[in-house]
Amino acid sequence: MNEKVIDLKFDKLDTNLAGNRLGNDVFAEQIEPYLEYNKVNIAVFPETIEDIASSFIEGMYKKLGEKYGKSKAIQIMLLDAKNKEAKEKISESIETFGV
Amino acid sequence: MEKAIYSLAEAINGLSSTQSDILNYVAIVISFIAIIVSIYSIRVQKNLNNVNLQSDFYIEIFGDYLKNKIPNSAKNLTYDCNGKMDNSYRNVSKVMFSMIRECGYFKYIDNSFYYTLREKVQDLDEYLVNLAGKRVMNKEEQQNNLISVHKEIEKIVLYINKKYQEY
User: Fold this and answer.
1) Is there a single domain that holds both residue B21 and residue B57?
2) CA torsion sign, A23 to A27 to A29 to A30?
3) How many domains does chain B have?
4) Do B130 and A53 touch (CB under 8 A)?
5) A14 phi, psi to nearest 5 deg
6) For residue B47, is it within any domain?
7) From the CB of residue A21, how many other CB atoms can be counted at a distance below 10 Å?
8) B130 and chain A in contact, CB less than 8 A
9) Do A52 and B129 count as a contact with CB atoms less than 8 A apart?
10) Which of B92, B93, B136, B138 has the fewest CB atoms within 10 Å, measured from its CB?
11) Residue B135 and residue B57 share a domain
């Protein structure tokens, strides 16, 4: 399946992201309008983002999960990060708490 | 219990031949009491076995986290010279996440405990990520922040400990 990369943008002073609501807002503003449902959409956090709370990740998947179910949500959207530690955190959060 | 039932049967047999036999009536009553006590004892033993099993699982799952992993992850919490939390703060969430993954047994045995614990761990993670994202140069504020993190960790440890006491 084809991939579509969506580069996320944040204020340069933001290094850490937390909060279910903020995750939901970021999804709504920066991802949802650009989703292509026939592709695997990969939302990429920039290098400046060093840590991401599990609550934020949950918030990002909330709308998709409610609409399509949790399994389908992960098929539609994957999260990635240019910062190695943030990338690890994403993986651990999803493995521990799901989406 | 079989003995009690046998005694009861014998007493009832005796009752049919001499109706005024007080001893047989007493034997019947005592046999009934013995049967009830036996049934109750079996139920108590079953419950005890279940409690012991859960207690064993509890120690197996949480023991090392409470004794070693959680305290070790928290002992290196500190601020660096730039006013940011040292990267070792990440170990706290790593250990807590690992604990949640390993205690999935409680999702089915004690759903409420599992999901409350999960929520507490997510709250701690969010608190840490927020704190770690801020630059704090004031030493007193740094100290207060570190104390508050330890207090949040303590809440989780006490919650798990309290559950053990119920067993």
Assistant:
1) no
2) positive
3) 2
4) yes
5) -80, 120
6) no
7) 11
8) yes
9) yes
10) B138
11) yes
